[in-house]
Amino acid sequence: MISRRGSETSMIRLDSVTKTYGSEAPAVRDASFEISKGEFVFMVGPSGSGKSTLLRLMNRQEQPERGSVWVVGRDINSMADSKVPFLRRKIGNIFQDYKLLLNKTVFENVAFTLEVIGRPKHVIRQQVPAVLELVGLSGKEDRFPHQLSGGEQQRVSIARAFVNRPLILLADEPTGNLDPATGEGIMRLLDRINNTGTTVVMATHDQRIVNQMRRRVVQLDRGVIVRDQERGVYN
Amino acid sequence: MLTRISYAFRETWASFQRNVTLTAAAIITSAVSLLLVGTTFLIQRAFDNLLTRWKGDVELIVYVRSDAAPEQIQVIEQALRSQPSIIDVDQLQFLDQAASYAEAQRLFAGDPGTLRLLTPENIPSQFKVVPLAQDSNLIRELGEQFRLLPGVREVAYAQDVFDVVARLSQFIRVATTAMSIVLLIVAVGLIWNTIRTAMFARRREIEVMKLVGATNWFIRIPFMLEGLLQGMIGAVLACGGLWGLNSAWTGAVLDFDDTELSALVVTGGFVRWIMLLILLIGAVAGAVGSGIAASRFLDV
What we know:
Chain A is built from seven helices and ten strands.
């Protein structure tokens, strides 16, 4: 077949993707859509509708039974295992539970990303303070996660996801554990990051946020895409 | 590159500290098993030395009854000397009862019960015979002829003793090898378990590492280094133990002042080779144990 389809600016493309866990009904069924460079996309739907699975398919934490997933022009399911780490360096991940390392400081948590992909010390010393300033955590470099509020912890996790300047940011319910005001702050931050040209894909069931942002909405219901709308609202 | 190396060593050291008890258990087990491996080699070497020495020595002893008349002894000696083609007559040696008793004092030093039963009067005198012929059947045939002579109590073949010792050495070789293999497997298993535990304790970190694009080797290497180090520390301890054991053994054997048994001493050069071998086995065991763990439990 054709090795590359879609427009030049395509960041992520799913072609008829089906993913089943065990013998249950498919978590994602025959999903197809394309996300262009610089887009901000909400994946919405109730719990268990397949939002998280879709995100996990995009960084090859999961492999589909059928269909193909293309990221930055490559079919990531036919990619060798040894290439997957390099794919993931182009993708930042944000989670509802932050996934911070509790025995490391704010600085160390963010520096960890650069350290494990082998960036030299002077790059780390330069980039970590810059990204901490971007997320509004300057002055809190030496705090440990338990000394921070939930919103601040999520900012650390965003800093960690963004410090390597990924092309894509995958956010799985990033505001799920936060109060509305704090969640709004996080959304402003994600919006700023999106404005730098980073593609953002965010799974959420927070209606208020989706309605406020007025971005593209992909709605899922029991694993099936039931709506894909530009500048959409939650329902 | 430097960042990666310093990262690997830092993580290895940190993990060592986190898991002191398990690490100690893995190290001690590998030390004991490797010590046994080394001891097996040394025992084998000692037996080989001894058997080599014996091969070229006395192979036939004609025991003469303690009540034999001097004329009978003379007949026996003549019979022996009449076979210069089979027997090295120049080396023919007669130990009278006094000499035999003195020898018995030495040979049975560790067996006072037997020694008490012996007196210079009831002990047999003996001819020590060195055969020229290599054919053991010929020597046996000759021995049977001597047995029929009046005054001869018994004819003993060194070959018999030699065979017994060889069988004994074979048995010890098999037993110690089997034990060291079993212990080595236990050591690999313990290292595997230690590394698995270390990885489980850090599964969150490993998950984050994988998500931000660390390569599998980058994640694995500190763990493998940890296992390698456990195996090698165990090996170093085993080397120390082996050296001490061999020194004590050498001292004890030389104290006996017995030129035959001194063949049981294993020299320093060979011991050093064995130590090198042990270090190698330890490193391989550590790398294998941790390598299996690091590959199997990386999927988080």
